[in-house]
Amino acid sequence: MGRLIVIEGLDGAGKRTLTGGLTAELTARGAKVTTAAFPRYTDDVHAELVAEALRGEHGDLGSSVHGMAVLYALDRRGAAERLRADLDGHDVVLLDRYVASNAAYGAARLRERADGDFVAWVRELEVDRFGLPRPDLQILLRVSTELAAGRAAHRERTEADRQRDRFESDAPLQQRCAEVYAELAAANWWSPWLVVDGAAEADFAALADRVLG
């Protein structure tokens, strides 16, 4: 059974860069690695509905915190069998976002903390009811909201398929989300967490040591 490693953080924190660098380091050490990212906008109808709602389609769906959270959760539920197969066939499965993203963003939208009702509801839904695979480690890429926003804006200008959605463009929401993420990490919510400075050059060798246990 492989190790499930999740990379979390704000839009623009550097999750994709960290995933690529860590994959290269682990592969160089002989580990069999596969990656995935949530939401699966091109592979799952629930994620497609999320993307459409974020563009203002489907009436007031985008305004419903719980309604959007259920769609995000159903996307992951649909991927659970594949995740388990990947864990059976690989040493490491790296995920760009997972359950904690749902918890952090929803709580931030409702102006709740990590110990509030929404985070508990997400855990009951995705962990207890859907039985999603538990991560061996969740890595939080911690950056300032200003740096994250600057990176996301640059990416939006230079990559045609990387447009920010309404949540990613909401600076106060991003700040609240960063605070909830920090609380989740401090509490080792659901599994162990590692906080990494996303503004500094990543030490992929040290991260690979931690990932491999």
UniProtKB/TrEMBL annotation:
<dbReference type="Pfam" id="PF02223">
    <property type="entry name" value="Thymidylate_kin"/>
</dbReference>
<dbReference type="InterPro" id="IPR018094">
    <property type="entry name" value="Thymidylate_kinase"/>
</dbReference>
<dbReference type="InterPro" id="IPR039430">
    <property type="entry name" value="Thymidylate_kin-like_dom"/>
</dbReference>
<keyword id="KW-0808">Transferase</keyword>
<comment type="similarity">
    <text>Belongs to the thymidylate kinase family.</text>
</comment>
<keyword id="KW-0547">Nucleotide-binding</keyword>
<keyword id="KW-0545">Nucleotide biosynthesis</keyword>
<protein>
    <recommendedName>
        <fullName>Thymidylate kinase</fullName>
        <ecNumber>2.7.4.9</ecNumber>
    </recommendedName>
</protein>
<keyword id="KW-0067">ATP-binding</keyword>
<dbReference type="GO" id="GO:0004798">
    <property type="term" value="F:dTMP kinase activity"/>
</dbReference>
<keyword id="KW-0418">Kinase</keyword>
<comment type="function">
    <text>Phosphorylation of dTMP to form dTDP in both de novo and salvage pathways of dTTP synthesis.</text>
</comment>
<feature type="domain" description="Thymidylate kinase-like">
    <location>
        <begin position="7"/>
        <end position="190"/>
    </location>
</feature>
<dbReference type="InterPro" id="IPR027417">
    <property type="entry name" value="P-loop_NTPase"/>
</dbReference>
